[in-house]
Amino acid sequence: MNNTFTHALARAIPSAGRHCQPRASLFRQARVFSTTPRISESPDETPSALGRAFQAARLEEAAQDNSPESALTKMMRGSRAPVSADYSKMAQSLEAEMLKRPYSDHAPPHRLHVLSHRRNTILTLTRPNGSPLMSMGTGALGFRKARRGGYDPGLQISSHVFAQIQERGLLLEIKSLEIIFRGFHLGRQAFVKALLGNEGRNIRGLVCRVSDSTRIKFGGARSPTVRRL
């Protein structure tokens, strides 16, 4: 009796009958013993229909434009692998691991030793294992005796070493560079000036670390007296 009255009322007043219609139970809506999501029965909303429409559009574009550039672009787009949903989580974990150990996954750098003595300035480039690649002092540029320890000789030898690194093709081998200073004389300031200037524009981008290995004396034998002129 109640169902007959409800259907009659629904036909008479559609807006009122929409709220009065009996709803199906949750047990009937659920798919028993199935974990796959429900797919809409409409053929226009299925993924296969969307995929066919997208493929037809791409074929139409290929028919209109047959240039080699567009074909290469389409080939690159077609070979692109799908991105995993967990990629962001993996990137975050990798970034956190690199912050904990910043030098763990990197190859050991090449080293450029800068010996700044009061009588000379010597630059030595070594491999990560310590074997030398290049070693030059201010005497190789024609400076003799007391003139070798000045500011200008240090600036010239620094620029010359940077040019030799580029001419010998060592920039292809060097992935990262560590600079090790030794001494606090004028050649050290000249090297820093050359590295930050136009001469070192291709070298300073490779620098990953700067350290100081100047020897400090604690006790020991008595130092010689300072020469007075």
Automatic annotation (TrEMBL):
A family per Pfam: Ribosomal_S11
Entry keyword DNA repair: no
Key words of the record: Ribonucleoprotein, Ribosomal protein
A Gene Ontology cellular-component term: ribosome
Keyword Ribonucleoprotein belongs to the record: yes
UniProt GO molecular function: structural constituent of ribosome
Domain of life: Eukaryota
GO biological process: translation
InterPro entries linked: Ribosomal_uS11 (IPR001971), Ribosomal_uS11_sf (IPR036967)
Region of interest (Disordered), ranges: 61-84
Family the UniProt entry places it in: Belongs to the universal ribosomal protein uS11 family.
Protein name per UniProt: Ribosomal protein S11
Gene source species: Aspergillus versicolor CBS 583.65
